[in-house]
Amino acid sequence: MPTFDTPAPIHATVDVITGDIRIVAGERHDTVVEVRPHDPSSEFDVRTAAQTRVEFADGKLLVKSPKPLSVYLTTRSTGVDVTVALPAGSQVKALTGQGDVRLEGTYGDCTVRTHHGDVLAHRTADLRATTLHGRISVDRIAGDAQITGSGDVELTEVTGAARVKNLDGPSWIGHAGGDVSVNSAHGDITIDRAGPRVVARTAHGSVRLGEVARGAAVLQTASGAIEIGVRKGTSAWLDVKSSSGTVHSELTAGDGPAGGDETAEIRARTLDGDILIRRAA
């Protein structure tokens, strides 16, 4: 297995036709790369693994599989599985046509793309992640998140802004420190704790905002319920409407915010579903 001395975090690019990518970041002073045929019984996979480039220079690692003509002339997929162990804090760009991408440990800025597969990460700085069919799950993003998917999206914590576009599947954000934008064609949207501005829209699905403390929130669905929790001590201005459902607010009506109160402006629309506004638990 190729091994390189890397006493500091590096910039790693892994680009394969098909196959899984696993990167492990830890407290280490070297980088180790392992390239294996995705299917050891496939001569195409074995050949592709043997021809995959592994290069390192000036703090940059490149792992890139070839694109032989035979890939396009056979119904059998050609692919390699890549495992990289590198120093924590490294920046990563991981691309695969078909396969899962796993980032274990703590990273700098990361870009991940797979056409068909899951994206799973522990901790990153800014993250751009895309899958056309699969799940995206990240424990902590210490920065901004740009997520494009078609499947389950789960972001436990985002310290910066979060932008999510999800074609088909539920989207969940545990806590966002910055502005949040979530758009979905088909799927529920859940944001447990919101940043200063939230825009959440889905054509088919429910929208739930667990706690809003200040700022502005725009929630919209064509078919589904909307639920909003307002933090205790926050005064809310409400503009909510359901075309064929009930609207219920558990908040006490008042003339305006008391001195020192945080304020939140909430707009919610659903064509077919109920709307509930309550105090956050």
Automatic annotation (TrEMBL):
It comes from the Bacteria. InterPro entries: Toastrack_DUF4097. This is DUF4097 domain-containing protein. Pfam families: DUF4097. The lineage of its organism: Bacteria, Bacillati, Actinomycetota, Actinomycetes, Micromonosporales. Residues 57-277 form the DUF4097 domain.
